[in-house]
Amino acid sequence: MKLLDGKNVIITGASRGIGRGIAQVFGQHGANVAFTYSSSEAPALELEKELSNMGVKAKAFKSNAASFSESEELVKQVLEIFDSIDVLINNAGITKDNLLMRMGEEDFDKVIEINLKSVFNMTKAVQRTMLKQRKGSIINMSSVVGVKGNAGQTNYAASKAGMIGFTKSVALELGSRNIRCNAIAPGFIETEMTDKLDEKTVQGWRDAIPLKRGGSPEDVANACIFLASDLSGYVTGQVLNVDGGMLT
Ligand code: NAP
Known about the structure:
The chain has helices spanning 17-28, 41-53, 68-81, 105-133, 144-148, 154-174, 192-195, 199-207, 217-228, and strands at 8-11, 32-37, 58-62, 87-90, 136-141, 179-186, 239-242. The chain is α/β, with parallel strands linked by helices. It is globular, with a radius of gyration of 17 Å. The structure holds NADP nicotinamide-adenine-dinucleotide phosphate. NADP nicotinamide-adenine-dinucleotide phosphate binds at residues 12-19, 36-40, 64-66, 91-94, 114, 141, 143, 186, 188-189, 191-194.
């Protein structure tokens, strides 16, 4: 059964990792996918082709999610190929880890801009269209770290916790117009972002997971299908943990 047949979706940061996994699973479920990348042009164009071969509309855009004007321009361009925007997935994100004592202002600001300000930029940019449609689902990719904190990630944890506050506020503001906004809090998902971690840290994460394995991008994508589809029509303002039980 194709759960997203004909839905038009924007995903930020889908050239790699979780975003790419979401795009692939959404394409398999019949969604048309416009997605962004920051610098990985070749993998982005490869994904565009892969999705088109599934028989859905697909388009890759180079667009910096931290830029307000680029986000507005992106949505304008997407509306030239899609006649609606049913789902926005704010997924683009980075880490710049360090203990607070060693963290520079630049690394704090950069993580907040790319992870959190981007969510404001893109949500503002799609808001008018979703209001006109009186329908929409916005999904923000937070993290377990935004819920529980993590030593060495004050910038990242603050950005991800901020996304949760933003999510709940948007759910309250736009609920009466049938626009839903939820967050996903993935735990340890094996992507290039986690490849940067040393083996001891990775083992520590795995030991703390009741299901005793790291998650895959598809694990997160499956949760996104629920939140993007009409199956979750009465769900808004929630944080769905996709973490193998880590926060239990
Ligand atoms: P990833 O493999 O590092 O991929 C990050 C994606 O974001 C890439 O497509 C990258 O594009 C894009 N991106 C980075 N900066 C951008 C910008 N300024 N504008 C537009 N796109 C940008 O990361 P991931 O592990 O898939 O993580 C995806 C999301 O899930 C992030 O928000 C992350 O915080 C969250 N998350 C991940 C985990 C985990 O364990 N992996 C856990 C919890 C939450 P380029 O390829 O062009 O650089």
